[in-house]
Amino acid sequence: MILKVKPAHTQAMAVTFLWSLALVTLGVLMFVIAYILYHGLPLITWEFLTKSPANMGRDGGIFPMIVGTVFVAGLAVVIAAPVGVATAVYLTEYTRESRFTHAIRFGADCLAGIPSIIFGLFGWVFFVDVCGLGISVLSGALTLAIMVLPTIIRTSEEAIRAVPASYRDVSFGLGATRWQMVTRVVLRGALPGIGTGVVLSIGRSISETAAVMLTAGSVLNMPESMFDSSRTLALHFYILSREGISMDKAYATATVLVLTILAINLLAYWLMQRFSVKSR
Fold it and tell me: What is the mean pLDDT of the segment spanning 258-271?
């Protein structure tokens, strides 16, 4: 005997299954965050955030690592964001579908799938050695910029494509040039999606370890320029935990890293929502 399932029952089962998977994913995320905060949050003090590390990181704070993270990740996004958005604008607004555009998208997809250690080796050979930049903040930022470029390109392209075609037609009908249409209409409508790609790029830049270790270095000193070596928070956490230097400092560093990424995401979400309301 064949058991027939009614469409309404099938729909209810599918919704229940999807909700269960979503709750499991959310539960895993909350467990990881709660576990890190439970072990690291009590160790966060003002001295820990404002002092330099001592005794290989067993004592002191993480202020040089905070500065190094801001320098490396910030400079990487500043370099990658204009290039990525400009590439997305060119692919969607200034050219037709061709082998050339397919080659660009294929290259971006390939870059997105390359392991970070390969980017680190490339940055070490090209930026550090060939270009003569040395192990520095600039070398690390350029390497991370190449890593996050595919994310910015693809998210920006999808956001621009989501802008209704009628917006473009109205702009041309009012006598706007293509550049005016892109800068004043399309980019404004696609800004929330572009912002999402930039935020994702910031998160990946902040949390990267392998590529930064080979290009920006792992010294504990305060970076004073783009040509100085530095250590990021993620790399500092990795070294403290991997080498067993201090698990307490490792948990505290991980807590600062998690809270920083959460704050950046919440701030970006609030700004994008506010801009979306104003642009309506």
Answer: 82
Specify the pTM: 0.86
What's phi and psi for 218, nearest 5 deg?
-145, 30
Percentage of residues in the chain with pLDDT exceeding 90?
35
Instruction: Record the tokens describing residue 260, joined without a space.
Output: 């920083």
